[in-house]
Amino acid sequence: MTMVEPLFLKSDFHEKIWGGNHLKDFGYDLSSDKIGEYWAISGHRNGISTVVNGEFSGKTIADLWKSHRELFGNQEGEVFPLLTKILDANDWLSVQVHPDDAYARLHEGEYELGKTECWYIISAEPDAEIVYGHTATSREELAQMINAGEWDKLLKKTPVKAGEFYYVPSGTMHAIGAGIVVLETQQSSDTTYRVYDFDRRDDNGNLRELHLKQSIDTLTIPGDKLPSNETKTEEFAGASITTLLKSPFFDVYKWQIHGSHSFEKSSLYTLVSVLEGAGELEANGQTFEIKKGDHFILPAQIEKWTLSGNLILIASNPE
User: Fold this and answer.
1) Span 87-142, pLDDT tens digits
2) Is residue 191 part of a domain?
3) pLDDT for 26 beyond 90
4) What are phi and psi of 141, to 5 degrees?
5) Over 70: is that where the pLDDT of 2 sits?
6) Whole-structure pTM over 0.85, yes or no?
7) How many CB atoms lie within 10 A of CB 125?
8) Are residues 239 and 207 in the same domain?
9) φ and ψ at 11, to 5 degrees?
10) Rounded to 5 degrees, what angle do the CA atoms 286, 292, 295 make?
11) Which of 197, 209, 217, 166 is nearest to 95 (CA)?
12) How far apart are CA 21 and CA 31, in angstroms?
């Protein structure tokens, strides 16, 4: 039996009305100046990642979830549960909310997950900000303010800078502002309810669809009930390991490597994105060159691995 390798991936770019060209900084060849999202690690039907190395080369994450579930520790579920994206917000995203699992299954399809997500801020221009929460204290007040278009009164805005982390549970009013690039870890869902879109029009002059009923149904009340976003960092000889989040859906970590550090498996499998630098990954007796812009999965059969070089990575695993 051949040794299972890390699963290195190639994935789809998505044009967006608010997208830009900053993802070229990751070494990606962009087809336009309106690229908003790179679905870096995904088994979702709207943008599936493909393995580019080893015995599973050419297989998609969705293929492997169906036919080689052992790679994922035989985790249960109809769909691969996690999705990692890089987003380039050259303009404001719509103000939006995502449903929880129960609402998504009832209204969006039997196997559609809800969408809890989180953001690691890769870069942010001066004065960049996000919408994070709202001011309404009852569903009636929320509906009244939305229908009256009282956005300045309703929306809570927060300034952001590079290196910060925000947890965005389902039900949270949110939007990423202009001039921000983020690494997003989320449940594998593409269900978004737009609350407000700044009255923008698409290339054909049409206003984008809003989902006011679903938004009012699913937004958390009161709207300022937000996570603490506390993190914890441990220092080692060759690394700083920060626990960014432990949630019911996924755990997220920041690995800063300045030398060499060895890891032991602590979950079924691990998703890894290289945000800065270059170095090496050693696993199952093999060594792989890694660099900024690479994304890979460490499957269940990899019990230990070592990272060396000067690197910043974001890792996540299922809870």
Assistant:
1) 999 999 999 999 999 999 999 988 889 999 999 999 999 999 999 999 999 999 99
2) yes
3) yes
4) -65, -40
5) no
6) yes
7) 13
8) no
9) -145, 180
10) 60
11) 197
12) 9
Is there a domain that residue 1 lies in?
Answer: no
Whole-angstrom Cα distance, residue 300 to residue 272? 14
DSSP letter assigned to residue 180: E
Q: Are 309 and 277 in contact (CB under 8 A)?
A: yes
Domain interval for residue 252: 232-318
Does residue 2 form part of some domain? no
Would you state the pLDDT for residue 295?
Answer: 98
Tokens in use for 130? 């996000």
Q: What is the pLDDT of residue 319?
A: 86
Which residue intervals of the chain are DSSP H helices? 61-67, 101-108, 139-148, 151-154, 212-218
Q: How many domains does the chain have?
A: 2
Average pLDDT value over all residues in the chain = 96
Task: Kindly compute the dihedral angle of the four CA atoms of residues 199, 114, 160, 175, in this order, to the nearest 10 degrees.
Answer: 0
For every residue of 79-108, DSSP letters joined together read S--EEEEEEEESSPPPEEE---HHHHHHHH
279 and 177 in a single domain? The answer is no
The answer to whether 113 touches 42, Cβ cutoff 8 Å, is: no
Average pLDDT over residues 147-151: 96
DSSP SS3 for 61: helix
CATH number for the domain that contains residue 15? 2.60.120.10
Could you tell me which residues are beta bridge partners of residue 264? Answer: 304
- pLDDT on residue 38: 98
CA distance 314 to 250: 13
Which residues are marked as active site?
Answer: 194
Residue 261 C-alpha from the chain's centroid: 25
Judged against a pLDDT cut of 50, whether residue 1 lies above it is answered with: no
Q: How far apart are CA 258 and CA 288, in angstroms?
A: 17
